[in-house]
């Protein structure tokens, strides 16, 4: 069984000895070994590839033209822990010839049950330890116990093919159709070049509207695509006087408005009373930080609005973050909005998929994606409900999602 290995070291002689031990004694293929000779190369490799094992020197130059920094190896470990842009290897082995470096790094390696080995070219002990680690990884891979990794950066979901997914497909992400197979239905694959990283994006529409399809298919697609982030765009109803048509809302928090208990009540006209008891799902703080940056960029929002070629509302486009109720019914009743306001006095909108999608994400197996629902206001769920601004709302929501992806 192949083991993908990243060697991070600036010494050509040491790289040669490590490679020789891996190939001759651990039966690792040369094609499965990647080399990084400074911190920048290591970061580039860890953003675009997945490795079972990283062999890390402690002293590394930050870039090829600089002298080695004895803290660079530890700095890389801290970045792997703190930033989601990197694919942290399942196993990390430190390999240093200097006892002082080993002593200072031992605690950090022990924190995650990693190993740090003394490198001595005159001894075979380090070779034996390294080959034992490769054997252990192979055993873990064959038994299915290895740490799972992300395969894609973004899974982009919509509840409707038209106008929601249609708006996504108009964005410049080099979309390519992918044929359905026996495990997953039809989807589109796209890419976005973010600096020196290429983000991989998969987009699809759910087969049905509503929370049941949203939860079931989100869970299924997470297992299939193993995304780092799950994003849902589309249309929703806004709360009049708090939002305008075309405005975009970040659902944070969101909950099932139908969660609770209905009891008999002699004081209510229909003889029953609903006691709401919802559980809420919230958006990760790092994603919210990105959204707030976009929300404060008036020029960007104005550009999104002005780029729409069709009919649009007279109001300035705004990005909101706040409470969104989610449920199984399409609502066209202003009195129902009044009832929902009792569940959260700052309610901004309601729709049908957000809570179920976010619940599926937060309860998925590892690696667990972060998720966000971003939808545009197309009506106010009242007696005047119509589809006049659905395409515009789908467009504004997809455009804001695109800006979020660009900052991941």
What is the number of E strands? 19
Report the total helices. 12
The CATH superfamily of the largest domain is known as Nucleoside phosphorylase domain
Strand order of the largest sheet: 2-1-3-6-7
Q: What integer is the average pLDDT?
A: 89
**CATH class designation of the largest domain:** Alpha Beta
Strand content: 25-35%
Structural class: alpha/beta
**CATH topology-level fold name of the largest domain:** Rossmann fold
The low-pLDDT segments are: none
**If classified by CATH, what would the architecture of the largest domain be?**
3-Layer(aba) Sandwich
Shape: elongated
Measure the end-to-end span.
33 Å
Helix content: 25-40%
Biggest sheet architecture: 5 strands, parallel
What does this 3D model show about the protein?
The chain is an alpha/beta fold and 408 residues long. The chain folds into two domains: 5-143, Response regulator (Rossmann fold, 3-Layer(aba) Sandwich); 152-406, Nucleoside phosphorylase domain (Rossmann fold, 3-Layer(aba) Sandwich). Helices cover 36% and strands 26% of the residues. The protein has twelve helices and 19 strands. It has a five-stranded parallel β-sheet with strand order 2-1-3-6-7, sandwiched between helices. The protein has a five-stranded mixed barrel with strand order 12-18-17-13-19, surrounded by five helices.
Q: Characteristics of this structure?
A:
408 residues; alpha/beta; Rossmann fold; 2 domains; 5-stranded mixed β-barrel; 12 helices
Brief characterization of the structure:
This protein has 408 residues and is α/β, with parallel strands linked by helices. The protein contains twelve helices and 19 strands.
